[in-house]
Structure to design on (243 residues):
């Protein structure tokens, strides 16, 4: 039985990914910022798919959180085959008008949190033949969006982490890739009014917002043996937004 650790699994892309992996028979270690949401996710998936799912909560910007998650994976399953580094936070703001605390938080969660999680999981991942990692970046980080420069920078760091880690960990048998979602209908878009949503849809070649499941399916593919010769890639899942 394969084991996957998914951060940011209580909602959105992380929850959809955990659902897809449970459906495929993975046992799960799920992380969420708050205890109630991630516990509910683990209990629901375990009941629905008959897998073992354990949950832990904490701020991913704190390295002790990812250390605890990896420890939980080892104590429960003695292995880790797949890692999905998805926990993140979003904030928009024009340059010159973004609070220092917002800048610090974006980098603490999105960039440092991703690095802490990968670093703390490496030792356990390298014990599993064919282990794979997928990080959630963003098309904002790969192509840029006005009004989101700081968020984009924090997500560009995630893409850079994925590429460098792929080179470093490939010789140790671990593949590392990233997905770069476009505009996905999760709570990160809740601040958009109808006009804003229409504008995003109009800019997307496929004529709709993405669903969390659209991204989850690509993550599941990258984790699978079907992607066994794919590493160091940042795969856009954006409906043609960046064409």
């Amino acid at each position: 039985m394969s084991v996957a650790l998914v951060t940011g699994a209580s909602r959105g892309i992380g929850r959809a990914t955990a659902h897809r992996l449970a459906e495929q028979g993975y046992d799960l270690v799920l992380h969420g910022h708050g205890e109630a949401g991630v516990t509910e996710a683990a209990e629901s998936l375990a009941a629905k798919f008959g897998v073992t799912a354990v949950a832990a909560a904490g701020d991913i910007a704190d390295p002790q959180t990812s250390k605890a998650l990896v420890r939980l994976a080892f104590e429960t399953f003695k292995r880790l085959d797949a890692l999905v580094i998805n926990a993140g936070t979003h904030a928009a703001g024009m340059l010159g008008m973004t609070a220092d605390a917002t800048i610090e938080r974006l980098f603490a969660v999105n960039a440092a949190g991703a690095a802490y999680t990968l670093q703390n999981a490496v030792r356990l991942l390298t014990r599993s033949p064919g282990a794979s990692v997928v990080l959630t970046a963003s098309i904002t980080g790969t192509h840029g969006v006005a009004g989101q420069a700081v968020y984009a920078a924090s997500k560009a760091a995630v893409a850079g982490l994925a590429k460098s880690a792929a080179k470093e960990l490939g010789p140790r048998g671990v593949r590392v890739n990233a997905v770069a979602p476009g505009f996905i209908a999760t709570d990160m878009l809740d601040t958009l009014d109808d006009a804003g949503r229409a504008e995003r849809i109009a800019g997307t070649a496929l004529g709709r917002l993405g669903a969390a499941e659209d991204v989850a399916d690509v993550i599941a593919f990258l984790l699978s043996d079907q992607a066994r010769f794919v590493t160091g890639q940042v795969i856009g899942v954006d409906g043609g937004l960046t064409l």
Notes: Residues 3-237 form a domain with the Rossmann fold fold (CATH 3.40.50.720).
